[in-house]
Amino acid sequence: xxxxxxxxxxxxxxxxxxxxxxxxxxxxxxxxxxxxxxxxxxxxxxxxxxxxxxxx
Length: 56
Description:
Layout: H1 2-23, E1 42-45, E2 50-53
Antiparallel strand pairs: 1-2
């Protein structure tokens, strides 16, 4: 009886942790793209990973 109670207690104690771990990134495609717009007068620099001012 004590073993069953201990196992049930552990299962209930771990369920929020496991649910949170499984929920991270669920439903997001690996090839999903993020759309970003830059302010007027700047363009996105893929190497720098930020918007940079345009010259010229």
